[in-house]
Amino acid sequence: MKLLIIGAGELGRAVSAVLRKNKNLSICFWDKDESKIPGEKPLPENVADSDIIFLCIPSWSIRPVLSSIVPELPKKTVIVSFAKGVEAESMQTMDEVCASVLPDGQSWVVCGGPMIAEELAAGMPARGILTCKDKNIFSAIADIFSGTSVQLEYSDDVRGVAWAGVLKNIYALALGVADGLGWGRNQKSWLVTVALREMLEIIRIFRGKKETVLGLAGLGDLIATGFSNYSRNREVGELLALERPHGLAGGKNNDLQSEGMAAIGTVIKLFSGDVGHYPILNGLQKIVSGSGEARQIFREMIN
């Protein structure tokens, strides 16, 4: 069985390390940066004989990559997206992007839950979520992880898992801001409870399930992303507390680029800017847009 991993960054390499004990799996990489994979075959050639394709790339790269591989994509191939984001232009989450770009009948899966790449690469145990409508597809993907350090659970709540991945990245920014402001664990724990309430309400609006928010895809991933020193979203939040970003809600500044930064402006647009009843989301909007100072906003939030 051939697995093609598109994206030879930290996550792609970490997933490969997890699966290297699977002797029935032939793993190859493709990356737009050819220097990462010396002598790599052209993408169409790699795609044509792949049984499974892992997309270990940012959300903003999912559509162009899928569009480029569709002409060579075998009907039997299963696509697995590890991206957790929402497109700025279409305002579609990754499940919607897969459904809109891939041919009818093509099998695809969205992965959620806490999957910190550095921990995976170190062989530390992890548990994730795979969501799709066909449980047989889940079983096929879960089987290749059998006997590894990663265990996978099934969810049929595709919308909930996709949105949980988007929102946990945004709220991890807030936990990073708290770190930048010197907040302790007591204050950050309070912040998690407020973030969870906001996530529950927003995902309900987007037709996701409450149990998804309270499970690995929501609360579990929020804790991992919001407290891990390896987390890019937490790190960017910490930077937001230390500087004025001057309207970088699209995450265009490389120093501040992350899935959370890329998503926050889109989520605000989906609510037509009316997020005053979501204290954290509203506060982040002000900080990212440069219309407020992080320390003052967070002080008002907790008092």
Structure at a glance:
The protein has 303 residues and is an alpha/beta fold. It has helices spanning 10-19, 43-48, 59-69, 94-101, 117-121, 135-144, 158-180, 185-205, 210-213, 216-227, 232-242, 259-270, 279-289, 294-302; strands at residues 2-6, 26-30, 52-55, 78-81, 107-112, 126-131, 150-155.
Secondary structure: elements and pairs:
Blueprint: E1 2-6, H1 10-19, E2 26-30, H2 43-48, E3 52-55, H3 59-69, E4 78-81, H4 94-101, E5 107-112, H5 117-121, E6 126-131, H6 135-144, E7 150-155, H7 158-180, H8 185-205, H9 210-213, H10 216-227, H11 232-242, H12 259-270, H13 279-289, H14 294-302
Parallel strand pairs: 1-2, 1-3, 3-4, 4-5, 6-7
Antiparallel strand pairs: 5-6
What does this entry look like structurally?
With 303 residues, the protein is α/β, with parallel strands linked by helices. The protein has two domains: 2-155, NAD(P)-binding Rossmann-like Domain (Rossmann fold, 3-Layer(aba) Sandwich), CATH 3.40.50; 166-302, N-(1-d-carboxylethyl)-l-norvaline Dehydrogenase, domain 2 (Orthogonal Bundle). It is built from 14 helices and seven strands. The protein has a seven-stranded mixed sheet with strand order 2-1-3-4-5-6-7, sandwiched between helices. Helix 7 runs parallel beside helix 10 and helix 12 (259-270) crosses helix 13. The longest helix has 23 residues, at 158-180. The model has no long low-confidence stretch (mean pLDDT 95).
CATH architecture of the largest domain: 3-Layer(aba) Sandwich
Spans of at least 5 consecutive residues with low confidence = none
Could you give me the name of the CATH homologous superfamily of the largest domain? NAD(P)-binding Rossmann-like Domain
Give me the Rg, rounded.
Answer: 19 Å
CATH class of the largest domain: Alpha Beta
Question: In what order do the strands lie side by side in the largest sheet?
Answer: 2-1-3-4-5-6-7
* Whole-number mean pLDDT: 95
Q: How many DSSP H or I helices?
A: 14
In N-to-C order, the SSE pattern is EHEHEHEHEHEHEHHHHHHHH
Cα separation of the termini: 57 Å
Helix/strand-derived category reads alpha/beta
Family: Belongs to the NAD-dependent glycerol-3-phosphate dehydrogenase family.
GO molecular function, one term: NAD binding
Binding site for NAD(+): 7-12, 117, 232
Keywords: Lipid biosynthesis, Lipid metabolism, NAD, Oxidoreductase, Phospholipid biosynthesis, Phospholipid metabolism
